[in-house]
Amino acid sequence: MKKVLYRFFLDYEKEEKWVNERAAEGWHLEKFSLGRFVFTKGEPGTYIFRNEFIRMTSSEKEDYFDFLKDSGITIINEWGGWVYMKKAAAEGPFEIYTDKESKISYYNRMLSVFSFLFLINAWFGIMNIGVLGDSARGGNISPTIGILNIIVALLIAYPIIKIYQRKKGLEKEDQFFK
Asked: Which residues neighbour 144 within 8 Å (Cβ) at sequence distance 6 or greater?
């Protein structure tokens, strides 16, 4: 039996927690895309799910996925740079980043991508509303697109703030224990 649920998350850790709550109820993630999750009915608590933002070349990604498979991890689905994976819960805890340095590095990689997307959308938004948005030259299309760009930039700002806070918390914790 399959179930399709629609949820939109701006916080990837909350999304991952939600997917694992479904798994505890016996609904295992089979596929995902932006806001759409397909689950298959199975044994409750069989798997632990993780999501990760991957930014690698094809060959690096292939090597990384082979490494994960050798570690008993199954790649479920990849969409838009995000990868969902699962591991049997019976094998114990499932953490992708086990030390602070690798997690901070992961946060830095995500911050660079999301910051770039934020800046591009903010810039296009400002350009379309201000410079290109002259209604005497082109009507209202540019201001409308500009407003959409600004909205997207604001939506992207939320995960940037959350990731930055998590990174700073780890860095502070790391300094405290040194």
From this structure: none
Who contacts 8 (Cβ-Cβ below 8 Å, separation ≥6)? 34, 35
What does the domain layout of the chain look like in residue ranges?
2-91, 100-176
Taking the C-alpha atoms of residue 14 and residue 32, their distance in angstroms, rounded to an integer, is: 15
Quote the Cα angle for 119-121-122, to 5°.
Answer: 65
pLDDT digit string (tens) for 158-177?
999 999 999 999 888 767 65
CA distance 165 to 28: 30
Q: Tell me which amino acid residue 59 is.
A: S
Query: Which residues in 73-87 are b (16+ Cβ under 10 Å) and which e?
Result: beebbeeeebbbbbb
What is the chain's alpha carbon radius of gyration, rounded to the nearest angstrom?
20
Whole-model pTM?
A: 0.81
What single letter denotes the amino acid at residue 18?
A: W
